[in-house]
Structure formats: C-alpha cells, structure tokens
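Structural prep section.
Before we set up the soaks we want a predicted structure of the protein with iron/sulfur cluster in place, mainly to decide which crystallisation condition to try first. Input record follows.
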Amino acid sequence: MAIRKSQVADRNLRSAIYLHVPFCLRRCAYCDFNTYAGLGHLIPQYVDALCAEIARAPDVRAHTLYFGGGTPSLLSPEQIERLVRAVRRRFGLPDGAEITLEANPGTVDRDTLSRLHAAGVNRLSLGVQSAHDGELRLLGRLHTWDQAVEAFRAARQAGFTNVNLDFIYGLPGQTLDRWRATLEAALRLGPEHLSLYALTVEEGTPLASRIASGELPFPDDDLAAEMYELAEEMLEAAGYVHYEISNWALPSHECQHNLVYWRNESYFGFGAGAASWWAGQRWANVPHPTEYIARISRGDSPVDEIETIPPQLEMGETMMMGLRLAEGISDARFRQRFGVGLAEVYRDQLTEMQRLGLLVWDGRTVRLTQRGRLLGNQVFQQFL
Ligand code: SF4
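Run finished without errors. Recording the tokens verbatim:
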C-alpha cells in the first residue's frame, strides 16, 4: 500500500489505535457488528496475528488505545497485556494514555478486572444496554441488570476510576417511564461516562424478523426523540456534559479515543474488519477472523479495501464528524488543516442551515443547535 507519510507530518494530528476482537459467546438479537459466536477457539491464533500486524504497522506515534468488539473481555488478562505491550512498543503510547476495553457484564469478575487494570487498561466500557431484565432478554443479552451492577462494583474495587456504561433506547414496546427508570438506575451507579444509542433495527437480525412478522411493534421515532430529550435533562441535572450527540461525561472524562474519530484525526485499526484512516487513505481488513489469521500467517496483507480520500471529501467528513461534538468546528482549526476557511467552502450551507435553526455560526465556530442535534443526519448530508 502506498502511504503518503508527508501529509501526516504536516498536519500534526493525533492518532488512535483500535484493536478489534470479533468474538462473542452468543449474538445479540439486534447486532450486525463484525463478530462471531462459536469461534472462541481461534483466540490464541488471533492474538498472535494481531501482534504480527501491529509489528508491521507504519512508524507513527499514537495517543490512545481501544479494545472493541465483539467482546474483548473474552481475551485473558495475559493476552490483553501482551497486546498493550505490543502497541506501546510500536506506537510509543505516552504514560497515562487512555486505554479502553469493552466488556460485557457476565464475562468479568473482580479478579479478572484487577489483572486487566494491572495490565494497563485504565478505562472500562460496560455494555449494559438496559436496567430492565425483560428488555435485556428482548435484546438477547446474556446478562441481567444485577450482573451489570455487580460488574460495575467489581470494576470500582479493581481500581477503575473511569467507567463508561452503554445503554440503548427506543426499544419495541419500551415506555418513557421505563427508560426513565433505566436512567435513574444508571445515575445511581455514578459512572464517569454514559453512551446512549437509539436502537437501529438492522436488516437480517432476529429482532428485525420479529418486528417484520408483527410479533413486536416497530420502534416509535417520536417516542425515541422524547427519550433522548429526557436523557439530556436528567444527565445535565446530574452534572454530565453532553459533549457528543450520543455521549455524556463528567467534566474531564470525555473519551479521548473517540474524540480522535469525531475530529477526523488518524486512526489505525488492527484485526478482522478493522478500519484505518491515515494520510489521505482509508482501508479496511478482511472481515472474517479465519481469513485474517490465514493472511497474516502467510505474510500477506490483511487489507481488503483501500480508498483514497480527496481533500473535498475529507473536509466534508470533518464537518460531518465534528458537528457531532458540542465544541463544534473551529474556523481556525479548519483553516490550519485545509488552508481555507469554513465560509469559503461552505457559505451557502452555513447560511441555509442557520436559517432553518439547525446550526449556530458566529464566524469563528459552527455548532449544531438542540434542534440540529435531533435532525443531525439532515445537517450532515449538506456537507457531503
Ligand atoms: S455483545 Fe456486542 S458485539 Fe457481541 S453480539 Fe452482542 S451487541 Fe454484538
């Protein structure tokens, strides 16, 4: 692959490292991620392949590391530690760099979490999804709410002081009161970070079939918007900063890794299906872990697709991602990166979106309004 290193040196952007762990004990009813149940026996070979791919990576500095999946907590603490060491060695992660691991309640206990913490993981992201056991069953999750609480407490005892909890709203049949009860239960735990996602019914999933057959009602978009507004009110009252459309954090606990994505800075993904974006190119690895392991063991490239991103598209994507953030996009930063100001490129769009009450543009920074956050996709399209 021809990589244009000079652009990165010029831009002085931050970089993030993502390691994909495409294994789950069972597939959840709504999931269309690149993950596989029943392939856990491949984990040792997969970890070897990840280390080999990391060792071959371009020589750049990185600032964050994220283990995502799938279920990264299916790897042993020793395997995680080996991968952390490989990333530190290759990318010179600074001391204290954010290292996040996604974990599913029910796959971790206090001892495992203590060993993960000792291995250098300093941020834990628990996929809780609901505080209601009936909703957890509907989603096909393996755990109960009590197990989620147990995992959270175990994380605290293991020394984690930066914990994210993921929740999903807009479920078939979910009421506003039940969502309120989930938010209250989450707030009682006092995590540093909350990610709240509206359910997307993905084609081909068991949940989509149950909805299509009429067994379950189709999620109600208006009710989902009310749930979002309720979350905004409750979390703000509890001291959380709504720093990204779907993410809230206590002050200074924003996810540093995801900020790299939202600011459209560089990232390197390793593992099956992992995507990377660097020096004007985006590429993705083969999705299946067996094929990924085979390619790496033959010494072949695991890359499946490469796309060159022209500057115009990079600008559009920078707008689309950056508008997700409450900080918005600064004209000075945009100009430093692209050599032109926001108004020179997007005068018409900025004027029109402002007229519709979806954006605020003061000549220095552009941000979504509250209404713009609810209609984000409509705004983003204008810049692509
Ligand atoms: S645990 Fe996450 S990645 Fe695995 S099947 Fe469930 S939703 Fe998908």
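Observations: Residues 205 and 347 are 42 Å apart (CA to CA).
Flagged for discussion at group meeting.
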